[in-house]
Amino acid sequence: MKKIITTFINIISFLLIICSVGILTLGAADGAALEYVRQPNYVNSSAFEEQTNHMMTDIFDYVQLTDIFEEDGNLNLGLIIAQADVQGQNVSYSLDYLIQYARSMGYYFDAWNQLQHDGARTISKAEDELNHQIIVQYRAYLPDYKQTSPTDGQMSLGALAEEALTYLARYYAVKSEFDNKNTNFYFNITYTSKKDEITFTNDPARSEEDIRNLPSFAYADSNSLEVSTNFMSLPQNLIPLIQARNPFRSSSSQYRFSVGIDTSFPNEDTFQRQSNEYTEHHVTSVVGLTMLVLSSLTTVFTLILLVLWSGRSSDKNDSKIHLYKIDNCPTEISLCIIFLWGFIADTLSPEILESVERIIGTIDNWYFWTSSLSLLMKYMVYFPMTFSLIRKYKADRLWSSSLLKKICDIFGYYVKSAEKTSSRLFSYILFVLPNTFAFIMIVLLFVHFINNQSLKAFLAAVAIFIIILAIDFYTWRIATGLSEAVDEQVKSERLKADLITNVSHDLKTPLTSIISYVDLLKREEIDNPRVQEYINVLDQKSNRLKTLTEDLVEASKASSGNVKIEFAEINYNEIVEQALGEFEDKTSSAKLDIILNYPDHPVMISADGRHLWRVIENLLNNCCKYALRGSRVYVDITDDEESGTASCTIKNISSSPLNISPEELTERFVRGDVSRTTEGSGLGLSIAKSLTKLMNGELVITIDGDLYKVSVILKKTVEETNDTK
Hints:
By secondary structure, the protein is α+β, with helices and mostly antiparallel strands. The chain is 56% helix and 15% strand.
């Protein structure tokens, strides 16, 4: 329940962040919220300073333009505004004439005294450029203009009319700005010469002293060079502007400049409107910033709690990470959804707003609404997908549930399977090289397709992709099929070995009891010869069964590799000679003549002494059982310097025909005498071969008619190899 409440609070706080940004953006003059919070008083703000400087600068446009366009305080339409040379004749143009000509070309003033040129026209611009070319020599609104060359000032009459009307539009703008009686801004500029005095003011009833007594004022006097003000700043070009607009144009003339603002703003003008707006913006800025800070802190805090609680149960004793169905989505898919949804949200938000705009009309602040809608859409997807990744990270499934992990596992399984028929390096090369080459070809073909719009390149890339995918799939199926077959065979062999081992172990307990009781019977003084004969048979057969079970266990361990090998440096000559000494009685009873040949120097090999003894013992046992009576057995020990190996070869003549291959002889339960007249178990050679292989050696059997030859080849020690060389 706490997760649901925290999630709900997080969503509400996130929406409040968007609302607070909207308040600051839409209700605080383009986001200047900090300025409004930092300075609550409009009079001390930068907005008041900018408006004051702007109106001070406009005063001088008012002075200049009223001096140009007015006569006795009224607009003089008959004023000669310009003079020009027209085909060698001096022509004067009045303001009224230029206005009428401009109207014929479609010029007019809108409600804001802005010059427009899309009205009805009787003279086109091309016709004006072609038929009404003049060379302007004088402009009333540019008193400092001087013609520097005969072609200087060349233009069309329409261009001159447009230029004059631009100054006229500016005249109307400053006229309406300063002739308005409802104003809180007052100025008085007085220019004096030796004989005359001209005053410009927007309130004749206010004297210079009255203006200077206003709460905010500025005063400049050229006679005393006094400049005083309580404004935060004045326009840097104030004094040059006062001097430039001097109508007397005499160095001996003087000026007095006074500007004042009634900061109580009793009259409805620009300052009063800005003051009211500033107060409203101050309130909305404080509210918006407070809401933004609190909602942001709440959002961050709830996010931290949700991250800590994500995947956790409400039960404190339950430490398991609980996942949802969405968490089964592969990691790469989740990341792709996050990135793609960001692009989709940015694309869809303008389309949605355009649809809304068709219903409700034009939407202002387009960027804010599209950004807010896009952010909201992203939040709806980012929130669950991000927490899904967090839960998978906590459960250590971020990598295990990824597609890349599955691809790596498939590749690893393919290589592991292929290793059973070839080397690891060959398996890597077989997979990496074709796929890398195909990938490069596909990329190059797609680049060619994009650059040249080639359909052949696109189809070739698709074909290569399909072919390499089919080859990879087919190869993978073959490798995995082979691997499964080998694994099944290994499993079967392991089950056989386990079965043999378990049965052998189960037989040991009753067999031990039988042998013990037979031994007790042998110690009893029994006079009946037949009973003694029965006891001897039981003794022989129980010992044979004991040997067979021990051989079964050892064969099982040797074939499965479950044997501990302790390599040591062994003299091959000595261990073979010792084994022949141990078997001297058996070979004598079997009427076999042993002939041993070995080098004069010691042949040192690396092997496990106990297991090597068992190998030699099994081979000599075979000789005693199956060799032809009265024949010779040759035992030769040799070493090979080039291969670094040593071998013990035993050769004898078989007493029975060897109608069997050497490979079959080393299988389990296979004997040379198929009639099974001897006591062999058929495991001796199999055990010898497995133990030799575990010692990194090789047991090789050769049959040539009745000639039986077996060789035990083992690696020589490093020191022995170097010494021999």
